[in-house]
Every structure is written in C-alpha cells, then in structure tokens.
Amino acid sequence: MDRFMQAAVEEARAGLAEGGIPIGSVLVHRGEIIGRGHNQRVQKGSTTLHGEMDALENAGRQSAAIYRECVIYTTLSPCPMCSGAILLYGIPKVVIGENQTFLGDEAHLRAHGVSLEVMNDPECIELMTRFIAEKPALWNEDIGETE
After folding, report:
1. Is 18 tagged catalytic?
2. What does the angle CA 68 – CA 71 – CA 74 come to, to the nearest 5 degrees?
3. What is the mean pLDDT of the segment spanning 109-125?
4. I need a labelling partner for 74 at 20 to 30 A (CA). Which of 24, 40, 54, 146 fits?
C-alpha cells in the first residue's frame, strides 16, 4: 500500500475510533497531502460530511488550477455526491482503496474522463466488511438505503 492510501486508511480508522463510519480520504497535490479527512456524519451530525468531502473541506479553498493537478485517495468507491464534487473541481484522478463492499459512481467518473485506480486493498475491504456486518443500519443510512 502506498503512503497516500495508508494516510487515507489512518483517517478511516480515526473515524471508526470516534464512533463513525470507517471511510477516509486524502487530497494530494504534487506529491504532498494538502487535505485529509474521514466520514464524520455521525460525529458532527452532518448530512454531507463523507470522507472525500471532509478532505476537500480540510484542504481549504483552492484555485481550479490546483484541483486539476490533484489526486484524491479514498478508502471506498466514491458515492454520487462525492463523485459530483470530484467532477465539479476537475480532479483528474481517483485512487480507490476498494469497491467490493460498495460500488460508487465509478462509471459516471470514467464517463467524464476521470482516471480511476482501484486497489482492492485487503485492509480497506476488511474495515468495511466488518463495519457493515456490525452496524448495517448506520451503513444503510450513510448511503441512503432503507434497511
């Protein structure tokens, strides 16, 4: 696992330790992490604070030129909301820890020219598999599903 995905996994583990959903993300510009975050819907009572959204928020306001040189790493395939933010800001590449437990809006991202690299990392898969088994109602809430 590369150091950027490892940082995203650390974020996911932090979210889990806080009682939240274990999804983490980092935004990388020219080889440096400029934003990191994790799903905080539970912790902050937020409707939108997924891991990717938190990483973007924590990167602070950036110019379009910066976003167009970024790679976003996420431990789980991005949902439609996060995919929309990736497209909105013109982030050209997404590195995905895994898409086995949840397949997000990858086809939409690809259709808009975003490069995707899916690692299917065992640690990312194990984190989500265990979480979904232990807290299915919370997981369904996060992805907008009914039980």
Report:
1. no
2. 135
3. 98
4. 146
What is the helix, strand, coil percentage profile of the chain, to 5? 45, 20, 35
- Give residue for tokens 């369904």: 140
Q: Is 59 exposed, middle or buried (0-12, 13-18, 19+ CB in 10 A)?
A: buried
Q: Identify the H or E element spanning 140.
A: helix 136-142
pLDDT in tens, 90-103: 999 999 999 999 99
**pLDDT per position as a tens digit, 124-146:** 999 999 999 999 988 888 777 76
47 three-class SS: coil
Burial grade of 18 (CB within 10 A; 0-12, 13-18, 19 or more): middle
- Spot the catalytic one: 10, 11, 32, 52: 52
